[in-house]
């Protein structure tokens, strides 16, 4: 099977864009690491479960795979640069950047939605680790447009 053609065909499914955040245990001063993902989806309302997929070759794979708590930040239409940044390797968020909220360092500022999750289950499936989180807190901004990804390009969808 032609993997490049398959990836292109799958890119025909428009998705929202989110950044998964986890605490970086290598730093004692509150650093957080972010990773851009478009594999996020809801799983269940009772219990409240969501999932996302982590490529086995992802930079800092072990950090995300072992995280017991993580944040899912659904990006707003104005966050394309942030998405591109967190798609690169080693995307640390430091307190001086003021990208996060003081009350929850895993929550990025000005996002469309935020889910604070505890690890519920993870399972190796193909070349990805499927990570299921139990939502312990969420927030939503009903007026912001969301960032989308379709056929390799960013876009937006409004309300």
From TrEMBL:
Residues 10-156 form the Flavin reductase like domain. The keyword Oxidoreductase applies. GO terms for biological process: pyrimidine nucleobase catabolic process. One of its GO terms (molecular function) is FMN binding. Pfam families: Flavin_Reduct (PF01613). Keywords: Oxidoreductase. This is NADH-FMN oxidoreductase RutF, flavin reductase (DIM6/NTAB) family.
């Amino acid at each position: 099977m032609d993997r490049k053609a398959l990836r292109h065909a799958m890119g025909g499914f428009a998705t929202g864009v989110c950044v998964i955040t986890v605490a970086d245990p290598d730093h004692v001063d509150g650093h957080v690491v972010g990773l851009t993902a478009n594999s996020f989806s809801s799983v269940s309302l009772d219990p409240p479960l969501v999932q996302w997929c982590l490529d086995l070759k992802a930079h800092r794979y072990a950090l995300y795979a072992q995280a017991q708590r993580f944040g899912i930040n659904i990006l707003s239409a104005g966050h394309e640069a942030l998405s591109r940044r967190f798609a690169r390797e080693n995307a640390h968020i430091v307190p001086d950047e003021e990208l996060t909220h003081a009350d929850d360092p895993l929550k990025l500022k000005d996002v469309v939605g935020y889910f604070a999750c505890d690890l519920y289950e993870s399972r190796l499936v193909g070349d990805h680790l499927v990570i299921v989180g139990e939502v312990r807190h969420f927030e939503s901004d009903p007026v912001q447009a969301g960032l989308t990804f379709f056929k390799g390009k960013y876009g937006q969808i409004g309300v």
